[in-house]
Amino acid sequence: MRGRAGGAGADQAQVAMEMGTFDLDGEVDSLRQKVGRMKRLAGDIGDESRLQGELLANLDETLQKARQGVKRGLRKMDKAFKQVNSNHILYLMAFVVMLFLGMYVWAKTYRAVKFVGGAFGSF
């Protein structure tokens, strides 16, 4: 025993075929065109998917390089911060100030000795 929906559809198709209104060649050509469009669409989707994958791979590579650069920068900043806290710059500045002060005192002393020696040597 047939179901109503299946039987009714089959009866209509048979009636259409008997009446001659069913163009099998036209339907096959129409299906071929639709399959061809679907095939091109699937190819376009595949190409787009491949392109998107390449872009994501390039983006991931760029992000990895950026992460490495940021890590390097952070390490350098950390190292510089630790050096600032170590007072070696303060000692260097104190040494330079003392060096210039010593040179100043030596120059003044040399000048004074030369002046005194020249003043007493002329008598």
Number of domains: 2
Total DSSP helices: 3
Number of strands: 0
The Cα radius of gyration reads 48 Å
Q: Describe the largest sheet.
A: none
Poorly predicted regions: 1-5
What distance separates the N and C termini? 152 Å
- Oligomer kind: single chain
Outline: rod-shaped
SSE sequence, one letter per element: HHH
Task: Give me some keywords for this one.
0% strand; 90% helix; rod-shaped; mainly alpha; disordered N terminus; 3 helices; 123 residues
Describe this structure in words.
The protein has helices at residues 4-19, 24-84, 88-121. By secondary structure, the chain is mainly alpha-helical. It folds into two domains: 7-86; 87-123. Mean pLDDT is 82; it is low at 1-5.
Record the SSE blueprint.
Elements: H1 4-19, H2 24-84, H3 88-121
Outline of this structure?
The protein is mostly helical and 123 residues long.
